[in-house]
Structure formats: C-alpha cells, structure tokens
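How it folds:
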Amino acid sequence: MTAKTWSPKLSTKDGPIYLAIADALAADIASGQLAEGTRLPTQRRLAEDLDIDFTTVSRGYAEAQSRGLIEGKVGQGTYVKARRSTLSRVVQPSGLVDMSMNLPPRFQNSSLTRRMWEAARDLEDQGLDLLMRYQEPGGIMSDRVVATGWLSRRLPGVTSERVLVAAGAQGALHAVLGVLTEPGDTVCVEQLTYPGFRSVASHLRLKLAPLEMDNHGLLPTAFEEACKAARPKALYCMPTLHNPTTRTMPLHRRRELINVARAYDIPVIEDDAYGALVPDAPTPLAAIAPETVFHVASLSKCLSPALRVAYVAVPEGRSLRVANAIRASASLVSPLTSAIASRWIETGMADEVRDEIMRECATRLQVLRATLPHNAAASTGGFHAWLPVQKPWTRGELVSRLRSVGVGVVASDAFAISSAPEAVRIGLGAAGSVEELKRSLAILGDLLSQAPATSTMVV
C-alpha cells in the first residue's frame, strides 16, 4: 500500500477527531489493512483529503505515535511501526502458540484498550499518597467498598466489612489457608484441582485428600466420607467452570455440599475465578452459606492477569485474622493495581472489558468446535478445554509430539492429586488471534487422526 491510498473512516461519536484518526490507524493495523512499514500520507495531504485542520491530523499522528503504532523518519515520512503485540508475544519457531497457559483472550477493541491505559494515567488525581504511603493489609476501605459492589452481583447482601483485597488468587489462598490450617493438616480438594492451590498447600506442608468427581463436579458423598475418615480442616473447590474439566456444579449439588460442610463444621474455600464470565452461573456457595465459605474472586481471568488483584469475601468476624495473614505473607496488595481495578469498576470500564473477553471467548469456543470435532469439553464463558486422550495415544506422547511442532498443552498430571486420567487441557486464550488458534488446533486434530507411530520423527 502506498501513502496515497490510505484514508481513515472517521467517526466523532466517541470523542475528538484526532483520537478517531489514531483509533482508525490502530484498527487498520490490527486488521492487517496497514502492514508494518507502510508509508502513511503526509499530515498536510491527509488534512486536505479529509477537509480538516492540519493541527488535528498532527495531533492524531502524535497520539498514534505515543501508542507505538507509527514512527516518523526524518526526511522520509511517517511509517507503520511493528505492532507491539507481535513483538512481545512468544511465538514458537513453527509459528504456532503455547496453549499450556490459561489466559483470557486478547480482544481487538483499540478504543477500549486506549481508555484502559488512560484510566491508569488518570490516577494522578490521587496525589502522592497513592505512591508514597503504605496501605492497610486487606485494602483501604474505598477499594473494599468498590470490591463489595463488584462481588454483590454474585453475592447479594455481602458487606464491605467482610470483603478484603488480596494480591491475586495465590495471595488470597495463602492467607486463608494460613488462618484455617497448620502444617500437617488435611484439606479436601477435587481429584483434579488447580495447580496453584497444590503449590500453596505444598508450601504450607498440608496434606491434600482428593475427592471423586463426576460430570457434574465434586460428589458430596465423597466429601462426607472424607470428613469421617480424614478429619479435614477445610475444603477447596471450584464449582463454576472447574479448572481443568470445565464442569459447573448444579445448584442442588451445591446445597448438598454445604449441608455436609455444616454438619461436620468444615470451612469451604470457594475459588470463583470464572464466575463473572458466566452470567447464568448457579448461586455461589458463599451466597448459600456465608457463615462458612471463604469466597475468592480473582480479577485475572475476567479482567486482566496484570492486575494481580483478588477480592475475598470471608465469614463474618474473620476479616481481621485474614487481613493479618495477608500482612504476614504479602504485606499488602499493590496500591497502584488495586486503584486501577477500582477505577475500571467505578467507571463501568470493567464491564466493557469483561464483555469483550466474553465475546472473544464465544468466538474461540466456536473455533474449537469447528476445528477440533473430537470429544473436547468446553463451556460458555471459559477459555480452556478438557480433552480426553483416546488410545492408541497417551497424554504423555501427545504432549511431547505437540511440543516438537511448537504447540503447548498441559497433561492431566499437573492437576491430579492421585492417579491422572488420560487427558490434556487446552488454553484457548493464549493464541494472539483466532487464526493462530485455528492453526494450532488443526495441528492437534491432525495428530489425533493418525496413529502415534505414523507421526513420529524419531530415527
């Protein structure tokens, strides 16, 4: 494309014209219409073509340059710069992607992306106190009030006195376990569970008792048997969009589970990482039994992994102990990231980000079902899939063969407390684009259509 052929499609409904120019550049670069190295029209030429002031175009180009979209070369003109997302993404030599990480998918809304960054820059109105003072462990009250509003959508009636802010799900789990357990204690978990919880439990020298699951999640009868035999100090579970199996526990089973917990006086740690992405999810355990459930809602999956913020709703009267545990383990959540999260939520931007992630999740779920027509389990709102591995393949051989061509998936061993089933987890959000996801899933499907011996490169 030459400099003379590009002309932006402008709309002033979202703000000034100069920002519309920058947004149009971002959109055309993201779509591939403007390739890296394309020379853009001169500012004066574009102003004439659009019949607008030269200064407006100049401001638009300056805004695009500040976003890293374009660069000026003295005496040569203005050119499309290499996209930051392309440079920063770890791409395998084959051009495929590592789907072992369970990341929310990146969306292509450049206007929203810009406003997300602007919200962070606007925090200067809070002055030096945000930058030069320690805050309370568990979060300052203003952030806790915002967190309460966010959680109240899933937990009606929750109060800010019961809500704390922690350094991500890991920080929250570490703090809650520090309150509920001592080294050598037993904690019940689903037979396939979140590797991060396994890591925290190992660090705290806890024993994990795996509980049997079926297609609807954890079996309450298995929990009751463990309560009788192992005398656990807590139950950790993920009732909504379970990681890795994607199963969601129905409401009647949640009530049965709570009945067991109440009967044996066992506190429950509910990991609700995906709840905000599933509008019709069943009632959380913490809404059924707020007196016994510690509800952990990370923002990493529904908003941004970079925030490292989780909101924790604790039973009444337990806030101080959990806050002290947060102080002992992590001192406090980063005030900057907590403030960004609060600003996104207060302005409604968090809802926009979540909605964009949900739309992208829906698109990628369609790609999974169209490209990999096997028995992979996936659910609306999630961005991971669970694939049982059929003979003659084994999970180890499949993971190894995929890795050799640059595709990463996770074997069930990472989640299994006892025996691991023949299965792998696929992260649908790690691919930088839908096309990358299609290519990676096509490789996976092609391998599964062959016998392992047919595709080997060992000599």
